[in-house]
Amino acid sequence: MNEHEKELIDRLEREHSLTEEEYARLIDGRTDEARQYIAKKADAVRQAIYGRDIFTRGLIEISSICKNNCLYCGIRRGNKNAQRYRLLPEDIYACAESGYSLGFRTFVLQGGEDPYFTDDVLTAIVSTLRERFPDCAITLSMGERKRESYEALYRAGADRYLLRHETADADHYRMLHPPEMSFEHRMACLQALKEIGYQTGAGFMVGSPGQTSRTLARDLKFIETFKPDMCGIGPFIPHHDTEFRDCPAGDLYLTLFLLSVIRLILPYVLLPATTALGTIHPLGREMGIQAGANVVMPNLSPVDVRKKYELYDNKICTGEEAAECRGCLARRFSAIGFNLAVSRGDVKR
Ligand code: SAH
Q1: Regarding the domain with residue range 3-341, which homologous superfamily does it belong to in the CATH classification?
Q2: Is the pTM of this model over 0.70?
């Protein structure tokens, strides 16, 4: 690590901001030593705010049916080989019930943009969850919807919304999505979510096709200025039935480096060590936590549908029951000095 790199990292820690050019330089110039240096700072910052607690979110993958055709995604509309399923409201409540008894106090409903989940259907599900689990946070990750829809869901009791921006560079966005999807619309959705009052999550894949240090620098600038409450970043992993099948997966060490950078930009951010990170390396999630992450999102979906929610190849934890997952994670994290919290794990501001 040269003096310049160290100076950039020290300044980022102090000021939580760099220029886009500096972010790009930080990424291009990174060395193992710089990665360890910044990870140590990120760990200290997270420790000062959230201690040694890791927050868990029970992920319920409610549908693999999607009207969109994102080029990277295994459940894109155009994938004729994808296995489609949809959970019924009763299935979703049962997942939440079992999750609650295991210690989950946040449920994340994620899915493709399945037209079945109209505002009426989804608000009814959210209201029921709100009533049955008054001490839990309800997070939605159901893609782009109308502002009125986000408002109705918020009124029904949803607290948080995850909508990764995917890339903050409009040209890059067009390389990853079909022409009918728009960068402006996705960004407008994020803005609306924030204005409505949701704890809002943005994020992006690391190593998605066409990504450069310039586009990543834009992502970091966007994170710095938009100030999301959550930021989901994980490596891109190719799916065999998409046209990106032969593209390389995102790099483990770059992902870890960016987790630390984001922790320094937004000290209070809720930062997951993602399943994708655990997929590209057996200890990926542990390393993510050590680089500054403080959230994990194990799967609460019924075991018989898990393999069907296949966004990318070789996804981990598709064979175990939720209880096994939670036990496994608790052991893994306690081995590195962290504990799985039984709490909503709201963002501190
Ligand atoms: N339909 C919802 C949920 C999408 S799935 C929405 O639009 O927000 C959640 C995230 O998985 C996506 O935002 C994307 O960043 C990630 N993802 C999709 N395909 C992936 C792949 N091949 N590799 C890694 N992550 C992927």
Answers
A1: Aldolase class I (3.20.20.70)
A2: yes
